[in-house]
Design goal:
The protein is α+β, with helices and mostly antiparallel strands.
């Protein structure tokens, strides 16, 4: 009887660890997907601000975020820069990522 209890206990611990690791892995994937979607949406918005792509920058960012499996949370443009925030849902939780895209900044290094 004690052996059966040990087996059942071991199985419960194993199942709990498996579920926990799967949830952690899924959250990590959602975070990476959010980061990629934010990067792509910011680049699309910045390209639209610069005139390289037609349309409205934040609408373009929303399209790209949606195509990446994310939802655009915020979008701001300033000069030729675009700053976006996106959200990816996973198992009732959310991963949020922000990204900025635009022309390179002056590095201050003389040429």
């Amino acid at each position: 009887m004690a052996g059966a209890m040990l087996v059942v206990g071991s199985m419960l611990v194993s199942a709990t660890l498996t579920v926990g690791l799967a949830a952690t892995g899924g959250a990590a994937v959602a975070a990476r997907r959010a980061a990629g979607a934010a990067d792509n949406a910011a680049i699309a918005a910045a390209d639209t601000v610069s005139g390289a792509l037609p349309g409205e920058p934040c609408a373009r960012a929303a399209e790209v975020a949606e195509a990446s499996g994310a939802r655009l949370v915020s979008c701001d443009t300033e000069d030729l820069d675009a700053i976006v925030s996106v959200r990816v849902s996973f198992a009732g939780m959310a991963a949020v990522a922000r990204a900025r895209a635009g022309p390179p900044r002056d590095s201050g290094v003389p040429e």
